[in-house]
Amino acid sequence: MAGRLHPAVATLAFLLISASVLPAQDMGEYSFEMLPDGTPRFTQVLRWDPDPDVREYEVTVETAEGVPVSTHRLEQPVLRLDLPPGAYRYRVVLTNLLGKPEVDLPWRSFTVLKAEIPGVTEVSPKVWFIDDLKPEVTLSGENLAPGVAVVLKPSSGSAAPIAGKEVERKGTSTVRVAFSGRGVAAGEYTIVVTNPGGLEQTLPAALAVRYERPVDVAISLGYDPWFSLYDSWFLESWPGTFFPLGASARLSVWFIKKPYGHFGVELAMAGRLMTGGLTGAIINSEIGQAGLNGVYRFPFSRWISATARIGGGAALSHHAFDYDGTAGAGIASVDLFVSAGLSLQWYVTKHIFLDAGADWTHVFANGFSEGGLTPFLAAGVLF
Q1: Residue-wise DSSP of 130-197
Q2: Is the pLDDT at 52 greater than 80, yes or no?
Q3: 52, 84 in Cβ contact below 8 A?
Q4: How many Å from the N-terminal Cα to the C-terminal Cα in the chain?
Q5: Extents of the domains making up the chain
Q6: Dihedral of CA 128/133/135/136: which sign?
């Protein structure tokens, strides 16, 4: 049995870990066998590519301090060791076909580490919220060796595993690991903990990633001036194109949340006052709008997001005429309109935000078409 250990004896195993050794060597292989008295014996294995011009390999093993441990004469490029944990070095002498030493290779260092199965008993926190993502977990238990590798694996889907980085530890019982927030999507994750010795522990569905609020509801109030862009009737009657008196209210609901954005609907209401006309003939207009938008929101971060909206509704218009102080007949109508807009939100706190953007509106009025641009600045509350 090689490469994997039975859990009952795994904590007694030792691995051979080496850096800067012979080219094409296979380090870290190990095996164990049960002795007649029931004691497991572990063997570390070092292999390297054979050389047809070498008759024998003489391998000397010493402790890091230079205390001899063993000397081996091998015909095959395989060395099996049974060493306790510690720091060691070894040297290989190549013997030619005449049986004489040909090349003394330099001393190489290696370390035998105790291979232990991680024993995580507690994961904290067990839930991450994408809305307020803090991608860290603290693992508690035993046998969490320095250099332990922690990986998040999505329980479903084809998303790539996410490797963590150790940022704090308390001995071998507690380790805090930080992850990159990139690639983290809603769902369940399996945590795989691997000690430097190669033994690992799998914790299925140990972490859940969710949206803190499956449905977001926001109410906002804003200041909405109006710029007339095209409108033969109004633009011919009124010399001005900018009308500063306007306001809006929005009720927005996002109920579909995906890693690529949030989708929902929005009830929007707006009103504006417009005064214009020529000398001796003044027009006072009151216009109110009520509509329904489809909305898409993309959160760039916890604090910044962008929203696009498109929709339409009904516009109620009332126009009053004043001819040199004499009131004329009023005109009222209800017309359909379409609109589209884009805005940027800044969350001052977790629930309070400012919203700045612009909407384009086209009104299908009786006998003519009216269109304009509405820049706005609003403040809102996210529930």
Answers
A1: GGG---EEEEEEE---TT-EEEEEESSSSPPPEEEEEEEEETTTEEEEEE-STT--SEEEEEEEE-TT
A2: yes
A3: no
A4: 59
A5: 10-115, 119-210, 216-382
A6: negative
CA separation, residue 274 to residues 237, 248, 279, 326 (Å): 12, 15, 16, 19
Residue type, position 187, single letter? G
Q: What is the dihedral angle through the alpha carbons of 199, 205, 207, 210, rounded to the nearest 10 degrees?
A: 150
CA distance linking residue 238 with residue 190, whole number of Å: 67
- At 13, list the tokens: 């195993």
Domains 10-115 and 119-210 share a fold: yes
pTM for the whole thing?
A: 0.57
Q: What is the pLDDT of residue 137?
A: 96
Q: How confident is the model at residue 27 (pLDDT cuts 50, 70, 90)?
A: very low
- In tens, the pLDDT along 212-228 reads 888 999 999 999 999 99
For 216-382, which CATH class?
mainly beta
| DSSP strand pairing (200-210 vs 127-129) | parallel
User: Considering the domain 119-210, what is its CATH architecture?
Assistant: Sandwich (2.60)
Residues 101 and 94: beta-carbon distance below 8 Å: yes
Contacts 24+ apart (CB under 8 A), 363-366: 363/315, 363/317, 363/335, 363/336, 363/337, 364/335, 364/336, 364/337, 365/233, 365/317, 365/333, 365/335, 366/333, 366/335
| Cα–Cα distance, 300 to 135 (Å, whole number) | 16
Q: Where are the beta strands (DSSP E) in 279-369?
A: 281-299, 304-323, 326-327, 331-347, 352-364
For the chain, the helix, strand and coil percentages under 3-state DSSP, each to the nearest 5: 5, 65, 30
Pick from 145, 156, 237: nearest CA to 195 = 145
* Domain at 10-115, CATH class: mainly beta
